[in-house]
Amino acid sequence: KNPFAKKVIAIPKAEYGGRHSVTMLPGGGIGPELMNYVREVFRYAGVPVDFEECPIDPQSDGNEDLEYAITSIRRNGVGLKGNIETRSLSRGILSRNVALRNELDLFVNVIRCKSFPGVKSRYQDIDIMLIRQNTEGEYAMLEHESVPGVVESMKIVTAENSERVIRYAFEYAQKHGRKKVTTIHKANIMKLSDGLFLETSKRVAKHFPDIEHDSMIIDNCCMQLVSNPHQFDVMVMTNLYGTIVSNVLCGLIGGAGLISGRNYGDHYAVFEPGTRNTGTAIAGKNIANPVSMLNAAVDMLEHLGHQNHANIILQAIDKTINEDHIHTPDLGGQATSIDVVQSVVKHIQELTKDKNWS
Ligand code: ATP
């Protein structure tokens, strides 16, 4: 008997008069412009979502902005997020992205790395689910200089958080007809921390006899990913390996501008571009690819139960990228961000023309 089968995760969603309220964290770099594109696309698709915008000053020495944003997500249950910069020079100010995930206990990051048929890349037909522990490991932010010239940094792995994320991976596999879960680790060197993660995987796997389970060391995993990515199905790993592997995978598929990432806890959900880049160098130039943030917005709509709106926007993105080949420079094209958004809007109008759409 599967002891996890009955666990139901209840995530609150603020809804007023049929409209959902969602916290919007534009972040820095290209974040604000990408959010404007989401607003534009939502307007044309008639999406019943109102945003509560929470800007965060990267240079501030306090955390009032962040606390306000966290309170807003607690109230709304759901957030859409760009990457938040931390430019304060104060030593006590830690990464606000990490702080937000920890405060809301968003213990799992989920990225679906699926090829776009219309985007030229080294491989086609990749469809890998990457499940990453999102709140501990090397991101514990516990570093100190014990004596001058010697820095200690703690990697925290707990049985409880490992089990939660591994269980999520197997449940996901079961629910979505996936065949295999691969645990990525470095337990040959980090025998206790990664050892615990690996042992927990083996223990959880026993409760899912229909799903094949194997494991791979992170360095071999990187080599296998670039030489034969089709061998992977669902991958589960600790925090730092997750950020590296997700970037490798997004790079294999077409770069930082396409794929979205989902962050879940037992109570809240936050959606963002998969690679979590700030894109400072390309901000304000009308060249950032809007697709990763639009896909994050689609994930958010699915989470809120607005499946029809999500489908329409997804189809419009698909037509723009895979059929019309309207590609920004990151995909080797010459289109501007606005060209992409205008094409998405045009397809939304066509797709909803004959329907009683509101
Ligand atoms: P920084 O905080 O210094 O900006 P970062 O780790 O956030 O660094 P970036 O340099 O922002 O990473 O992003 C990595 C690469 O991905 C850059 O070349 C950037 O231009 C590109 N990139 C990120 N997002 C997008 C996007 N939406 N469209 C096109 N290119 C993107």
TrEMBL record:
SUPFAM superfamilies: Isocitrate/Isopropylmalate dehydrogenase-like (SSF53659). One of its GO terms (cellular component) is mitochondrion. Transmembrane segments: none annotated. GO terms for biological process: isocitrate metabolic process; tricarboxylic acid cycle. Residues 21-344 form the Isopropylmalate dehydrogenase-like domain. Keywords: Mitochondrion, Transit peptide, Tricarboxylic acid cycle. Its main location: mitochondrion. It holds the Pfam family Iso_dh. It is found in: Mitochondrion. The keyword Iron does not apply. Belongs to the isocitrate and isopropylmalate dehydrogenases family. This is Isopropylmalate dehydrogenase-like domain-containing protein. It comes from Cloeon dipterum.
